[in-house]
Amino acid sequence: MDSTKGRAVGQIRRFDHVGITVADLDPVTDFFVALGLEVEGRAFVEGEFLDTVCGIPDSRTEIVMLTSPDGGTRLELSRFVQPDSVPGSPDAMANELGLRTIAFEVDDLHAAVEWAAGEGYGLVGGVGEYEGAWRMAYVRGPEGIIVSLAERID
């Protein structure tokens, strides 16, 4: 019997960040900055560390680290300079396996959805309400990233 089943193997100190690989950093970064995230830094990463961690020899990436206004979890956007990116499924629906959404609480869902539409990013479905507590919508952002926007209903 597995002696680790049902108990933690390690101790997580905090939720640090979510990473998304994209083809073009600038429009994706601009989209998330417009939503309210702030750029914490931008850099190129290469060498033994990256090769070891990602398992791709001779790789080179450019990353942008974004942080939320509350200073909580961060978002890391990365673009592979070497080797070339491998196409994903930018039109994937929520039931396709893999990372599909990144979620943010917003003050005004209607305004956020209107802004996204004005930028050319439409709703995946519609605006839904959950038990009178939340109003939420999925917006398909740049490179097919689904952004869940939720407004607390008071």
UniProtKB/TrEMBL annotation:
InterPro entries: Glyas_Bleomycin-R_OHBP_Dase, MMCE/EMCE_epimerase, VOC_core
Keywords: Metal-binding
Record has Cell membrane as a keyword: no
Origin superkingdom: Bacteria
SUPFAM superfamilies registered for this protein in UniProt: Glyoxalase/Bleomycin resistance protein/Dihydroxybiphenyl dioxygenase
VOC domain sequence ranges: 14-152
PROSITE patterns per the UniProt record, alphabetical: VOC
Designated name of the protein: VOC family protein
